[in-house]
Amino acid sequence: MTLESIKLFYEALKNTDLSVIERLVKKCLDEQVPPIDILNKGLIQAMGIIGQEFKAGQIWVPEVLLAARNMHAGINLIKPHLLKDKVPSKGKFVIGTVKGDIHDIGKNLVSMMMTGAGYQVIDLGIDVPRESFLRAVADEKPQLLGLSALLTTTMLEMREVLISIRETFPDPPKIIVGGAPVTQKFAEEIGADGYGEDAIAAVELSNRLISQGGK
Amino acid sequence: MTYKERILKAARGEWADHLPWVPRIDLWHNSNSMRGTLPKPFKQDASLDEIADYIGGGYHKIVPEFLKVRSPEDNIDRGIGVYRLWGMAYRPELIGVDREVKKEGDATLVTYHTPIGSVSCKYIYTEEMKRAGASITWITEHVIKEPKDYKIVGYIFKNIKIHPDYDNYLEFQRKVGDKGVAAAFANLSASPMHHIMKEFLDATQFYLEMYDHPKEMQGLSEDMEPYFDQIFRVLADSPAEVIFSGANYDEMITYPPFFREHIIPHLQKLADLLHPKGKLLLCHCDGENKGLLDLIPESGMDIAEAVCPQPMTKVTIREVKKAFKGKVTIFGGVPSVALLEESMSDEEFEHFMKNLFNEIKPGDRFILGVSDTTPPDAKFERLLRITEMVQDWGKLPMTE
Ligand code: B12
Known about the structure:
The complex is a heterodimer of chains A (215) and B (400).
Chain A: H1 3-14, H2 18-30, H3 35-55, H4 61-84, E1 92-97, H5 105-116, E2 120-123, H6 130-140, E3 144-148, H7 152-168, E4 174-178, H8 184-190, E5 194-195, H9 199-211
Parallel strand pairs in A: 1-2, 1-3, 3-4, 4-5
Helix pairs in contact in A: 1-2, 1-3, 2-4, 3-4, 4-5, 5-9, 6-7
Chain B: H1 3-12, H2 26-35, H3 48-55, E1 90-94, E2 98-104, E3 107-114, E4 117-124, H4 127-131, E5 138-141, H5 149-158, E6 160-164, H6 166-176, E7 184-187, H7 192-200, H8 203-212, H9 214-236, E8 242-247, H10 256-274, E9 280-284, E10 303-307, H11 317-324, E11 329-335, H12 346-360, E12 366-371, H13 380-393
Parallel strand pairs in B: 7-8, 8-9, 9-10, 10-11, 11-12
Antiparallel strand pairs in B: 1-6, 2-3, 3-4, 4-5
């Protein structure tokens, strides 16, 4: 895929008209571009540029959410082909805001960026009880589990979830944590596998953990 | 000098005798009374003001009590961000709208029937939230679910009549006395668009709706203008010295272009009504202010309440002061985590506070407070320790 076509993907991700990205992906499929290339060299590369622009303060939350939604539509179109070609997804990521906490803007951004980066994301929502995390890990067998907390009180719940998961599953997913009050130091203290300062860091961290062998 | 005089002087950019220290303890009080864990020497039914007296700072009377209602009518319209609370200086009346209320366990379901259609919303208050001391209910079903709802909500707002309720406010002002400044509440949102963002749609959905239904959104925002205008006028004529309009300014949520386009003009409009009458505009600035620092002093805001520094945000008080250029009074400075033993050891806390006092120096345009509020598990002695520090180091202008 050429630079020129990355630009097309980038523009399509920024377009408020969902059909632009859909047409582009369909056109690539018609031209026999391997679906994995459409994903990795088109969509993910383009989303990477958007992530950088966001980090640099050139664009804002609405543009990122729009791009993430377009990305989602694009991925949905190539998904059947990827499955047919038996291309594994980059990894499964379960995320939720822990019990007692209803803040979800940050978690949603992380979800969207992770989807944008090619992960299969299962978002459990807000105020998620420990049992739901356990059930989701049992049912979905994700490589990564993300916990979000914005309150100093609920931050402590992260530790509880982490302990339960590791006690229940002999081969637990990598657990990453984030949210305004969470720090690298706290993440280390509770023994999380990683801490992400923002949604972009969440993706970089996940890529790193997955490349180190996932779970 | 009384606390009230001290706060007002700081708010007007004049020198008070001493740095005002005004800790907010509502969440802490709610939660600890509920759990029966108020520290010694308090009885478990000790009131918030009793504890504030003991701490020895001023009373924090800025954010209204959303849950302590006189009758259900007071906060029944919470789902559309409309209140009739004790202490407010105006009273909204819904005209031409039939309200239908249903209770389902922890949830309240409100449907608004108008001549052009109906909309509904749902909000909850659970045991869990009670124990956490949450001061406001949580909307689980937003009032705008489909494009047609914009017009209906617009109808509701176009037809709201705002009545002055100055006696209600005066009761509040009298109760606070000279221990603090009783702020007259306008809205948690600063403008119609900010209101749509905060109250009518899920936080993430709002941004996508800006792309999907810009015309409907714009129409609703216009329909809501008279509601804001009436409130602004009634408050400008009220007996209050300080008006509170708008909460949670965050560089991500109310990102700079949004702040510039949808928040500043309304703050300016209100400030222009207030300033000729000697009144002050206060905003609850809790959030990551970094990207907004240069915009805040352009807004006409006099007091930026709940300014929260590092380590909870990316800004330092020094940076905030520099950006505000002496035009805006900072109210805050102690991030809530500084009061928690898990986050800061006693030594770290002492060190943090020393440094904060250094940054505050010489102490003009500053009201020391907790941003945004004292957390339930705060170490109570730290509030008392801050009182001591203020006594020892807070004489204005602060020099050494
Ligand atoms: C908006 C907001 C609200 C909104 C939430 C709306 C929503 N749908 O989420 C409302 C008004 C409802 C709210 C309610 C409350 N809030 Co509030 N709120 C905020 C505010 C202003 C911004 C949070 C936000 O969305 N930021 C923007 C997003 C994009 O940033 P973010 O969440 O940090 O997420 C980023 C990173 O942290 C990271 N990340 C997040 N999650 C994850 C997960 C993983 C795995 C990774 C890797 C990364 C990651 O990536 C994200 C994207 O870059 C903060 C202030 C602040 N300084 O953060 C207070 C704040 C979080 N709230 C606070 C409080 C106290 C409350 C209430 C208890 C208030 C009350 N009186 O009732 C209630 C809580 C109710 C409850 N049980 O949860 C306090 C928490 C204090 C503390 N340390 O405990 C804060 C810090 C304010 C303060 N300064 O005191 N709040």
